Amino acid sequence: MSSDDERNVDPVQEMFRLTQSLVKLDTWGFKESFRSGANKILIYDSERCRIKFVWGGWDYVGGNSISIYYGRLHAPNEIPKMICNGEECHAWHRFEHVIHFLDERTPADAAKMNYATPLTSKYYEEEYRQKYHRRQPEWLMQMHLDVWKHYGKRFFEMFDLRRPDLWEQYREFLREMYDIKGRIPFIKPAMDKVC
Known about the structure:
The protein is α+β, with helices and mostly antiparallel strands. It has one domain (3-181). Helices cover 39% and strands 21% of the residues. The strands form two sheets. It has a five-stranded antiparallel beta sheet. The chain has a two-stranded antiparallel sheet with strand order 5-6. A hairpin with a 4-residue loop joins strand 1 (31-36) and strand 2 (41-45). Helix 2 (11-23) packs across helix 6 (136-151) and helix 4 (107-113) packs across helix 8. The radius of gyration is 17 Å and the shape is globular. The mean pLDDT is 93.
């Protein structure tokens, strides 16, 4: 694909194409629930959680890029935060801290590792960087697919509103991790305020 083609792609249609061809979200029980061309967002829901694909744009060095977030079924479509039980909290989440929790790491170990995980470390090695050169959306989707295959439904259950006990354990894990790691005062709400 030439750089001209990369820049002229419709972001939502390209994310849709990749979700259908690479990760086949329907086989995981996900159905499209929201799309916004204006905000370059594509969201899928399952009975357990939501997955949000956000177009990051194009740059000369890296080409197109996306971000992938997970939310519980109450997560709003276009904003990252919401009010839950009278408190502002983050409603969309990255996967790395969930992996630390599922792997039963201590909060101290998770704080040291931050976003690094043994399962995904191969994606940052030179071989993978070359394999997916200028194809960040495919690189990221393949990484997430490996996470899903490794953890199966356990991963998606982390976000399941029907499992408040599990979510509370995860919130406590995050609180302890950020007690060790420290919080950035200007990030409001604090990163361990999740819903």
